[in-house]
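Homework help board

Subject: predicted structure for assignment chain

Our instructor gave us this sequence and asked us to write out the predicted structure in token form, then describe one feature. I got the tokens but I'm not sure how to describe them. Can anyone check?
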Amino acid sequence: MPTRTARTAWNGGLQDGSGQVELTSSKAGTFDVDFPKRASDSPEGQTSPEELVAAAHAACFAMSLANEVGQAGGTPHGIEVSAEVELGPDDKNGGFTLTGIRLTGSVEAEGLDDAGFVQAVDAAEAGCPVSKALAAVAISVDISRA
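My token output:
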């Protein structure tokens, strides 16, 4: 199986420094990061580790769900998944931690009854590699039929 890489170059301290995240494997882009914008409600055009985790989780879950719908005998026509990854204080260890992830979305598919649909969503959650990697974070899933 393939390995994917990313690289970050950081200059300065946490509060006054900044960096760039490079998606090295795909060469899809380089993105600015800094802590004040990461911890702010307004990212002002900069990404954050949490946004990158959200992107990875949404993509992985959508692929997993497409697979599970097909495995259950359905035909997926369209799947939309959004992920919200929340950063908050780590009351136990200090610093910060991911405090929750919410996956929401909809599926347009035929050939599945309601029970089969629920089973496919549950199996997608259990089988998504990113969900498995993030198992220490509370993940909620709210996927509906389109």
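Reply (TA_rk): Your tokens look well-formed. For the description, you could write something like this. The beta strands are 7-11, 18-23, 29-33, 75-89, 96-110, 139-145. That's the kind of observation they're looking for.
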